Amino acid sequence: MCFAACIGLLLGALAGYFGDDTFRISKASAFGIIPGLLLGFFYGFSFRSFELHEAFSSSATLGWLQFLLSCCIFIFVFVICMMLCKVIEKRGIGAHSIAVPLDSIITRSIDLLISLPTFIVVISLSAITHPSALNLMFLIALTSWTGIARLTRAEFLRIKQLDYIQAAKSLGYGHRRILLHHGLRNAIAPAIVAIAFGIAGCILIESSLSFLGIGLPIDTVSWGSMLSLGRTQFTAWWLSVFPGIAIFLCVICFNYLGDALRELLNNNAITDVYN
Q1: Taking a C-beta distance cutoff of 8 angstroms, is the pair 209, 226 a contact?
Q2: Residue 127 confidence (pLDDT) above 80
Q3: What are the contacts of 55-63 at 24+ separation with CB within 8 A?
Q4: Which of 62, 133, 183, 188 has its CA at 20 to 30 Å from residue 236's CA atom?
């Protein structure tokens, strides 16, 4: 959930703060984004698909190291393409700026990911990767950031119209300082509640995958794998009772924690309004 929170907070903040008409780039850079993304994906991932498959098949650590190397290649190729666009822009070609609809792009991406069944997506991705705790953590995180992003976007749409944000803009502060130092600090409260509820959801997903035998490795003990053993060994009743009680208590504790945080933050917001 920490990894999912980083993705959700970043994308939600960008979508809510910039909207569809604030973030502007030159026409040369805009036309260079798509070729840069395609070339970066080709040289970073498609060209190295065999190495990535072999790395993930051997071990999770080696697989994620190869994945990070592919990401570095992707970023390098993309930056080279953007630098070439800057050279073209300096020659006076495509120097006019256009608005990039960040809000629409991120919102449609969230809608697309939400429309996919999370559990089926995680099962499909788990089937093509080496079973390990690290792989399972990243797979669950990549499908769990949408709720945090939507809450953060909604909060940024509210606070960017407030006086202190307008005062920061009038003082000449840059977008990065306003976004991180002024906006994100005051928009993170709803995301904390979503993270608390998301931890409970991640526990249920991991337990379900381990119960089906496609989550963690076979030699790794988890509550879900213990429940799977209890399904075949009826005489060992404790294999089903105690892991089930542990999952129930852990999930309900995080749900109560989320409710408590929501009530606390709502009470603090009401107190601030009256003050």
Answers
A1: no
A2: no
A3: 56/128, 56/129, 56/130, 56/135, 57/130, 58/130, 59/130, 59/132, 60/129, 60/130, 60/132, 60/133, 60/134, 60/135, 61/134, 63/129, 63/130, 63/135
A4: 133
* Torsional sign, CA 195, 186, 112, 7: negative
CATH number of the structural domain spanning residue 159: 1.10.3720.10
Say if CB 191 and CB 173 are below 8 A apart. Answer: no
Q: What separation in angstroms does the CA of 264 have from each of 89, 177, 192, 226?
A: 52, 28, 12, 37
What pLDDT, in 10s, does the model give residues 163-192?
888 888 888 888 888 888 888 888 887 888
Amino acid identity of 157? L
Lowest model confidence (mean pLDDT) among 68-82, 86-100, 109-123, 149-163? 86-100
Q: Is the pLDDT of residue 200 over 70?
A: yes
Which of 35-44 are b and which e, b meaning 16 or more Cβ less than 10 Å from the residue's Cβ? ebeeebbebb
List the beta strands (DSSP E) in the chain: 24-26, 97-99
| Residue 32 confidence class, pLDDT cut points 50, 70, 90 | confident
pLDDT at 275: 46
pTM score of the predicted model: 0.77
**Residue at 171 is within a domain:** yes
